Amino acid sequence: xxxxxxxxxxxxxxxxxxxxxxxxxxxxxxxxxxxxxxxxxxxxxxxxxxxxxxxxxxxxxxxxxxxxxxxxxxxxxxxxxxxxxxxxxxxxxxxxxxxxxxxxxxxxxxxxxxxxxxxxxxxxxxxxxxxxxxxxxx
Length: 138
Known about the structure:
About 65% of the residues lie in helices and about 5% in strands. The chain has about 140 residues and is mainly alpha-helical. The two termini are about 25 Å apart.
């Protein structure tokens, strides 16, 4: 597959990793291992971003390409996604919750006013649980 301007960040990162690019490989490893707090994309609406979000983005892009009139061969991309997802899925949901807790604790230094309510943290954990369940069924 050739990197094109309309390729998503997810497929671009996978493509780089498949080509042996150290940055692409590192991005996938970090995304599978940590969560980050996104307070900027939609001001006032916090979200976390981790593997399940990345997988959702990547699968949406794969489906979009497969629906095109001349879809590229994304078999190796899907296999890499499946390999990493299998490893991440072996983590119990409680492990993901702890990772989100670590993310929120780290972010509280710079976003304390946004994380003042314990309900916000619970909301972010529930959103991740739902994303995990939704993607495990894909």
